[in-house]
Design a protein that fits this description.
There is one protein chain. With 190 residues, this protein is an alpha+beta fold. It is 25% helix and 27% strand. It is built from five helices and seven strands. Strands 1-2-3-4-5-7-6 form a seven-stranded mixed beta sheet, sandwiched between helices. A hairpin with a 2-residue loop joins strand 6 (168-177) and strand 7. The longest helix has 15 residues, at 117-131. Its EC number is 2.3.-.-. Residues 12-190 form the N-acetyltransferase domain. GO terms for molecular function: acyltransferase activity. It holds the Pfam family Acetyltransf_1.
Length: 190
């Protein structure tokens, strides 16, 4: 299997990974950290997908997709922190004024897990941010040790995968997800 990571500009492929089975459903669409909470609450059903379709037409794209051949098998949300709610988040600190990018969601399709796709997504998100001039990239994964993580809440990633990708622990946070503390991990791209 050869995994290729590309910008998430193909809306139908993004829909395959983070869209609902039913078009009217109010699933996340990976918008919760991307847009203000008021707008996130106002966008209902198909309007959520339409909003994401617009993001896919923008530059930069809203993240990256992993492909096995032509099949989309993974998604990672990555954007300048200033364009996300992490810019205002009280639980996840800012450690300096560097205009970092945030990597906050990693999703691998069922049937494709345990094949290294999340590692390819992290590497692809790093390359994407670097290619858009990011001086550093941050992630906010779970610090779960060896404890099992509920797959629904594993979207934030786990600390050891970011360490494997060269990220280092930059700060503790007061954010907890699925019973596990989240840590701020950073990779300098300068």
């Amino acid at each position: 299997m050869t995994i290729e990571v590309r910008p998430a500009s193909a809306f139908e492929d993004v829909r395959t990974l983070i869209g609902p089975k039913s078009p009217g459903a109010n699933v996340c669409w990976c918008l919760s950290y991307r847009i203000p909470s008021k707008l996130n609450n106002e966008l209902r059903g198909p309007a959520r997908g339409e909003y994401v379709a617009g993001l896919c037409r923008a530059d930069p794209a809203p993240g990256v997709l992993a492909y096995d051949g032509d099949e989309p098998v993974g998604w990672a949300a990555v954007a300048p922190r200033s364009a996300t709610s992490f810019a205002r988040n009280r639980k996840i600190p800012h450690i300096d004024d560097l205009p970092v990018w945030s990597l906050w969601c990693i999703r691998v399709r069922p049937g494709h897990r345990k094949q290294g796709i999340s590692h390819a997504l992290i590497a692809g998100a790093v390359a994407f941010a670097r290619g858009h001039g990011a001086p550093a990239i941050e992630a906010y994964p779970l610090d779960n040790g060896d404890a099992k993580v509920d797959l629904t809440m594993a979207y934030a990633g786990i600390r050891k995968n970011f360490e494997r990708a060269g990220f280092t622990h930059a700060a503790d946070t007061t954010s907890v997800l699925a019973g596990h503390p989240r840590v701020l991990m950073r990779l300098d791209l300068r």
